[in-house]
Amino acid sequence: MLSSFRSSYQSMTRKRTRDQQSVASRLSSCSTSSGEDEEDDVNHRVYPNWCGHRHIIQRRGFRLDTCRDVKQLYQRYWESLASQGRCAPNDLPGYLRACSGRSDDELCPDVGLPENLFRGTRCVDGTPVVIKAVHLRSREYDVVRYLSSPPVGEHPMNHCIPILDRIEIPSDDIAFLVMEEWSPHLDADPPHTLKDFLGIIRQHLEHIAFMHAHRIAHLDISIRNTVTDNKMRYACIDFELSRRFDTTNARIRCLRATEVPPEVENGECSDPYKIDVWASGMFILKASQLTGFQPPELLSFITHMLDEDSIRRPTARQALSVFNSIFRTTDTKITSR
């Protein structure tokens, strides 16, 4: 079964291989056809003056990481390793960067994050957070604000990463999204049982079906945009390309995303919801490869989602229904690889 999955995966991957120059040229000549004003000036990434906003953020109960915080983090890390009889070099780049600050109170950005993100803590209990700067009038902020507001934010099928606060600064057209810090990749805490793996896929399909029911398309579904709280909760992140539509018959043209379906590659007007279904199929396929959980029923399920004809692909709601009907008994009976 493993070799069959690998063969099928490689075949699908080869079908997606394309001339990058040709695609880039085609994308540059395309525009969306959703009928809305793109307002590109508000939908690009925002790189704020973190030092200038740190006190506003702190008044809301959150503290940006300083050189002192980072050095203490590494000290705790080394002490933890020492208690296990292990060790690590004390010249790690993050630690050296913190030591090079002019003072312990100087902000210390994580070089592994883009400049629109900053690590910090919640003052009341020390909970680690990640703070993201977005334009106040961007599509991303519109989507996140909608998905995190009650009653939508409280729905059990809404698997967004928890938003602890939204800090709006109208004078600068900036909003700060304060999120719990979850592990950034599926491989950071892979599931230990088939039941847990299927639970991840179910959470993913529930969330996509939920967003589509509210006329929201994610448009950049991928493994790198899935995070975990290390307690078997998984969530979608990064809504930079996401859109909320005013119709169920929305169409878009061109997309810069990780997983791009054939109709988008061909420059056609595309159903944004079927784009998400394609990307979800690729997400499930790669998650299966990554974790090694490859039940025989899964490949045919994925293949339907990856149909090159978008009309023949299921909706997210249909995919969730089929998934539940196939695996409702499987994931309750099997608890190990």
Automatic annotation (TrEMBL):
It holds the Pfam family Pkinase. SMART domains: S_TKc. It comes from the Eukaryota. Residues 1-337 form the Protein kinase domain. Residues 1-12, 20-34 have a biased composition (Polar residues). Residues 1-41 are annotated as: Disordered. InterPro entries: Kinase-like_dom_sf (IPR011009), Prot_kinase_dom (IPR000719). This is Kinase-like domain-containing protein. The lineage of its organism: Eukaryota, Fungi, Dikarya, Basidiomycota, Agaricomycotina.
